[in-house]
Amino acid sequence: MQTRRYPRDIHDAFARRVFARADTVSILLRHVLPPRCLAYLDLGSLELASADYIGRKLGRRSSDLLFTARLRGTTRRIGLYVALEHQSTRDRLLPLRELEYLLLLWNRHRRHRRRRAQTLPFILPIVLLQRRAWTSPTRLSEIIDLPPEILAAFDTPVELKMIADDLGSSVLDDPHPDRSTVAFVELARALLHAHRNPPAQTRERAASLVPLIETLMLDPKCSDDVITIWAYTNGAFKKGSPIHTALHRAINPGNLPMTDEDILMKPWIDKGLRKGLRKGRAEGLQKGRAEGLQKGRAEGLQKGRAEGMQKGLSEGLVKGRARSLLDVLELRSLRLPSTARQRILSTKDEQVLERWFRRALAAASVEEIFDEPLSASAGAAR
Fold first, then answer.
1. Fewest CB within 10 A of the end CB: N or C in the chain?
2. Residues 195-208: tens digit of each pLDDT
3. Does residue 181 surpass a pLDDT of 80?
4. Are 97 and 83 in contact (CB under 8 A)?
5. What are phi and psi of 317, to 5 degrees?
6. In 3D, which of 44, 41, 38, 46 has the Cα closest to residue 72?
7. Of residues 363 and 186, which shows the higher confidence score?
8. Distance between CA atoms of 351 and 263, rounded to whole angstroms?
C-alpha cells in the first residue's frame, strides 16, 4: 500500500491557513458582500475568534473560521461566520450541516451568558465552493421535501441562506494597500478553483499565476506564504501538470536538482537569489519583461548564490529545515506540544531535521517523527 504524503482534508487545511488572517479575509469579504453590507462593517476591526465546540459527551466539533467585526461608527461587535467548505462531489445536505454549526455557536453564546441571553449574535455564513461542489444547495428551503408550488403556498418556516463564492473571479482589483497580500489571496483562490477543474488548468492559466508567486518571492515577509502555496500545489496537483510545472519553475528558475523539501525551504535560504530576482525585475521593467526577468534570474543564480548562500547557507539551511517542519505539522493539523516545538527549534543538526521532516509528511502523530519519545528527551534536557 502506498503511504499518503498529504492529508485528505488538505483543501480545508489550505483554506484555513490562507483565510485565518484579518488582512486576507477582508479581501474575501469585500469580494463576496454587496456594498450595502460593507457600508456597515469596519473590516479593519476583524478579529479571529474561537470556533471549537465541546459537546456533552466530550466530542469535539470545529467550524471553519469565525471572526468578529465592529459596526462602523460604534463599539458594537458582530460575528462573521466564514465557512470554508470543500467537497469533491455535490453535498446535498450542506445547508443542514451549516445550520448545525450555527446552532452550536448560538448555544455556546447562551452558555457563556448563563442562559440569560435574550438575543442571539448575528452570523453571516459564507461558503467557498470548488468545482464539483458548485451544484450544492445553499438554502435550507432547497432541501425541503415538498413540491415547489406547495412550498410557495406554505412558505418555509426556517430558512438559511449561505453566500456562495465559486472562486472563478479575480480579486486583483481589491484596494488593499499590500499588493503581496492581494497576490497571495488571488493565487490561493485560483488554485482552489483549478483543483479537478480542467478548464482552469491550461498552460495559459498556469502562466498567469507565475507573476503572483514572483510577487510573493520578492517580498521577504511572505516566505511562509510561498511555503503554503507550494505545499498545496504539491499535494493537490500532479507532478508535470501545467500548474505544478509553472510554479515549480518560478520558485526554482535554474531547474537545479532539488527535492520537494529543498523547494519548500528555498524562499528564505536563497536570499541572494531573491536579490537577483529583484534586480532582474527592475531591469525587466526597463528593457521588457521577458529579457529583463531572464537576465535577472541568471544574475541572481550566479551572483546571488555565490554571495548570499556562501555567507549564510549553513545557518539558513538549519533554520529553514526547522521552519518547514513546523509548517508541515501545522498544515497537517498535528498537535505539537511545546516540548516538541522547543526541540525542533533548538536542533542544529541539518540531517536530523531533514529526517524528521520526511517522517512528518506521513506520520500519524508527532511521536512518530522523533528518534526517541518526547518525554525521554525532555528528561534528558533537565
1. N
2. 989 999 999 999 99
3. yes
4. no
5. -65, -45
6. 41
7. 186
8. 16
**What SS3 class is residue 8?**
coil
Segments making up each domain of the chain, as ranges: 10-144+154-165
d(CA 288, CA 286): 6
Lowest-confidence pick of 4-8, 70-74, 81-85: 4-8
Question: Cβ neighbours of residue 365 under 8 Å, at least 6 residues apart?
Answer: 334
Beta bridge partners of 82: 65, 126
pLDDT band at 41; cut points 50, 70, 90: very high
Cα–Cα distance for residue pair 83/92, rounded to 1 Å: 16
Provide the H-helix boundaries in the chain. Answer: 10-19, 22-32, 35-38, 94-112, 148-154, 179-194, 203-217, 223-236, 242-251, 260-269, 271-287, 289-299, 305-331, 338-346, 350-360, 374-381
Q: What is d(CA 237, CA 67) in angstroms, rounded to the nearest whole number?
A: 30
Cβ atoms 319, 332 nearer than 8 A: no
> Residue 16 is which amino acid?
R
Binning pLDDT at 50, 70 and 90, where does residue 326 land? confident
Closest Cα to residue 82, out of 45, 29, 155, 135? 29
- Which stretches within 252-304 are classed as H helix? 260-269, 271-287, 289-299
Residue/partner pairs of 346-349 with CB below 8 Å, 24 or more apart = 347/318, 347/322, 348/318, 349/318
Rounded to whole angstroms, how far apart are CA atoms 376 and 210?
46
As a whole number of angstroms, the longest Cα–Cα distance in the chain is 76
